[in-house]
Specification:
Largest sheet: 6 strands, mixed
Helix content: 25-40%
CATH class: Alpha Beta
Shape: globular
Oligomer: single chain
Structural class: alpha/beta
CATH superfamily: P-loop containing nucleotide triphosphate hydrolases
């Protein structure tokens, strides 16, 4: 079995000052695709935010892409996030920049300086998600599904060890959701580890994978037919 890329042991996840998940034990290995499900308010987003250090891990143990979440310093957070690809429900593209400029902004913010390398990297990730032909368009000129493809491309820029996708199909219609899932599946088949929070159970049935559920303050694995 490959080494753990994410491990939580007896962790407590807080939503502001209130504990929302207790005794969380998760072990995700390189190359896995894992769903995280649960009702609104069950702690999915708080768990995701803890993993990319938007929320502190105050109790228990947690290691993600070789960073200890309990001892993580503020100035280490950008370095942690360079090893993660984060995909949000609402895309978070900069509306005043075109697709190329959106991705260029991320590369410059994460320390890239060589213009030739940056251009090549942007073209490569956009090609991987089928969006290279839209490289000069503004976000408002492409559909929601296309914007999410660009957001996935953005998450791939720094060759992340783990992709955290928080409701990546939440704002999309069923057909577009399937198209975005196909992109994520392809990325996973190429060796990327993906943890995807979702409430779209139709996707779980169409693309079965190991599933963790947040419910009544706990996180546990469920078999596909009982989700």
């Amino acid at each position: 079995m490959s080494a753990s890329i994410l491990k939580l042991h007896n962790a407590t996840i807080f939503q502001e000052t209130e504990p929302i998940l207790a005794d969380v034990n998760i072990d995700i290995h390189k190359g896995e695709f894992i769903y995280l499900i649960g009702k609104t308010g069950s702690g999915k987003s708080s768990l995701m935010k803890t993993l990319y250090a938007d929320l502190d891990l105050k109790q228990g143990e947690g290691v993600i892409v070789d960073y200890d979440l309990r001892t993580l310093k503020q100035n280490d957070i950008p370095f942690l996030r360079r090893k993660l690809g984060i995909v949000f429900q609402d895309f978070k593209l900069l509306p005043d920049r075109n697709i190329f400029e959106n991705l260029l902004f991320v590369l410059k913010a994460t320390g890239w300086t060589n213009e030739v390398d940056m251009n090549a990297r942007i073209e490569d990730v956009l090609d991987r998600v089928g969006m290279l032909q839209h490289i000069r368009k503004m976000p408002h000129q492409i559909s929601g599904g296309e914007q999410q493809r660009v957001a996935i491309a953005r998450a791939l820029l720094n060759d992340p060890e783990l992709i955290l996708a928080d409701e990546p199909t939440g704002n999309l219609d069923p057909q577009t959701s399937v198209e975005v899932m196909e992109v994520l599946q392809q990325i996973n088949q190429n060796g990327r580890t993906i943890l995807m929070a979702t409430h779209d159970y139709a996707l779980l049935l169409k693309y079965p994978a190991k599933t963790l559920k947040c419910d009544e303050g706990k996180v546990f694995e469920v078999v596909q037919k009982t989700v």
